[in-house]
Amino acid sequence: MTLAKIMVPFLDSKTADIAFQAGAVLAKENKSFMDIVHGYERLDKLLPGGAYYPTAVTVMAESLQRLEAAQKEATKKLKQQFEDRCLAATIQLLDHAPQEHLPCASASWTSFEGDIGQSLATRARTADLVVFGKSEVEIPPLELDVLERLLFQSARPVLVTHNDGDFSQMPKTALVAWDGGREAARAINAALPILQDCDSVIVAMAGERKRFAASLADAVAYLRLHNVNATHLSIRMEKGEDAEDRFLEEAKKRDADIIVMGAYSHARWQEVILGGFTRKMLMQSQFPLLIAH
């Protein structure tokens, strides 16, 4: 299994740099094609509808023109940022996606106008992995919305990175959060190209195994069949402890370079209203997270 195509959304200059660094590391390791995509919302929908007020419409139109000009300039700068990063990382620049596998890492640029979250999720369905850069450790609401739409609507795994979680080279130590459920199973399968390159992979379970869930030993055996140097770890939970806190403690203790986990194994409304493992990890983790739903 290889990562032949990696999609990297460029939301803005900060998230673009964060995502590009991780994407470039993976692309060079796997000789992958990087699909760099920048989307922006249509601004004309901000114009008032209904009653016609000539003065107000004129002012809005003038403001809209200024915003559109600023948006075009920002997109131009992002494209230049993309080209500069490719040059620095010795990644081949292409005008469009290749039709066959190339013997080196490559990348192309696409920008579009429309619904950002939905358009990115649709495009991601033909990628092996999405690399998503978050601007802050506690991911801002707008970025979280795009990320969740990618997870729920693309059926693709997502690698979430941040400046505090270094991804300047391939991970060597990985911590896998295993609960035996389908989301965790999808995550370890999606992570195989990365886990196979690791020196150490710790598959950890916190608390009791769910009914009908695959066991910790089964997960380790599966990874070993795929030439992954995997071991298991049962994390004992004290009363009142949160699983995400214990996983982050273990990640720090073992100098993990990445955490692999299933996302939103509970109903989404429970995560949003009551809080949950996925949301808390996204909000608290400084480690790169490879997640799948």
Structural overview:
The chain is an alpha/beta fold. The chain is globular. Helix 1 packs parallel to helix 2 and helix 3 runs parallel beside helix 4 (141-154). It has helices at 13-30, 54-88, 116-124, 141-154, 182-190, 192-195, 216-225, 243-253, 268-274, 277-284; strands at residues 5-9, 33-40, 92-94, 106-113, 129-133, 158-161, 173-177, 200-206, 230-235, 258-262, 289-292. The chain is built from 10 helices and 11 strands. The protein has 2 domains: 5-42 and 75-161, 3-Layer(aba) Sandwich (Rossmann fold); 173-292, Rossmann fold. It has an 11-stranded mixed sheet with strand order 3-4-2-1-5-6-11-10-7-8-9, with helices on both faces. The two termini are 19 Å apart. 43% of the residues lie in helices and 20% in strands. Residues 269-275 have low confidence and may be disordered.
Labels describing this entry:
2 domains, alpha/beta, 11-stranded mixed β-sheet, 10 helices, 11 strands, Rossmann fold, 293 residues, single chain
Q: Write down the secondary-structure element order.
A: EHEHEEHEHEEHHEHEHEHHE
How many beta-strand elements? 11
**What is the assigned CATH homologous superfamily of the largest domain?**
HUPs
Radius of gyration: 21 Å
Tell me the strand percentage band: 15-25%
